[in-house]
Predict the structure.
Amino acid sequence: MCRDGVRGKPEREVLSLAQVLAMLDDLFFQSKIIETARHVGVDLKICTTPDALAAEISKATPNLVVVDLNAHNQPLDAVQRMQSLAAGVPLVGFLSHVQTDLAEQARAAGCSEVMTRSKFTKDLATILAGAKSETT
């Protein structure tokens, strides 16, 4: 399932395609990324499963994909599927700072950048604004 993070409308009411797709299931963090996307003026769609993420990518290629590598719904599968669906799209994965093995697995699966959750949170506005500049 996906929802439009900027407008908060159910999926069937979304009229514009997202510039940024995010796969995460942490509701607290979803609120943070939605608010930051609104602040920087980026279209954002949040998906909670690899299947939902793949479905959105098949509709239109985003400028950026963000994956919570600590999500419960097979985040590495989502990263691997991205490679065949949207090769060349920047994919940022974030995780707990102590998970060095998972970070290496994510890089091997295709993440263009892997960072700790704290760094991702700190740089979130810049990361999202960078996706916005891809369209100009």
Notes: The CA atoms of residues 116 and 122 lie 10 Å apart. The mean pLDDT is 86.
